[in-house]
User: What shape does this take?
Amino acid sequence: MLKSFNTSIERKPNQFAYWREELCNTFIGMNATKVENRAFSGSLLNLSMPELCVSRVTADRHCIERTQTHIRNDEGEWLFVNLQLAGSARTEQGDNRFEAKSGDIVFVDTRKPYSIDLPTAFDLLCFKVPIRQMRKHTRDVTFSNLPTIPHTFGLAPILKSYVGALVEEGGKGSIEAGHIFAENLVSLLCCGLKQSQPNSKSVNTLTTQQAARFNDLDSYISANICNPSLGLASITAELGISKRYVQKLFAAQSTTLSKTILEKRLRGAAETLSDPSRSSRVQISEIAYAWGFSDLSYFSKRFRETFGRSPQIYRKQNH
Assistant: This one.
């Protein structure tokens, strides 16, 4: 869902109050303080998708603060991933401080108090991502330490282009497309984050170009996940890359191609089983085959290992 707002629709005395209210409605509980006693201008474009919200924020100078009171009153555990496009932002969380310039990316943990000083007019992209989503790829990163990805990694142009293409479509894609986008974006962010952490336990890392190639690969897998013949041979033949290169990309993510395909198929089948409108009159075997499984016994075994229940019980408990 795509929405936007601009302070120009309000009378000048009310513009900042309007801005503060809309920030809280769009993001999370926080205080916004105007630094200068003059007219304020701000605009926000927000795209909400499953598991992810993306916002383009352009505004005059002001300050943001999230306190323990806000945290106690809010539900959910989120990361704000802020990509500075223009201007600067001084972020503080605990004993950690970082001044972001154009192209820098900073990860802010909303479970802890923080403040952001925006000393001049600015332009930034903000990604609101569930922490559990990031944890799938970054188990060794402590988010409360204000991790960052400097502009030297070259990730900013890729993210900006990626988001721009999506916004141009006006968020008209399907729910499935939204899931694919969210997965790819989180994967791309995690690749950059792993590279930027000197104490990361991960041995294998991807360059920015490899991360972008991995996202292309992951998108292709998601788009063709229901094809039972999907595998290393068919993927490399279709995308024109070597088997060894594919294996290297997945190894850098501490996983394998076959495991990724299995996880995507199981997750898809679980979503279908939990949706009464899609599965109440459909046999378990039909759902398994629809998601690319060719062996019903194998599907049932792997489903039970992953979700702790048989597909039949999982459907019954989720209807």
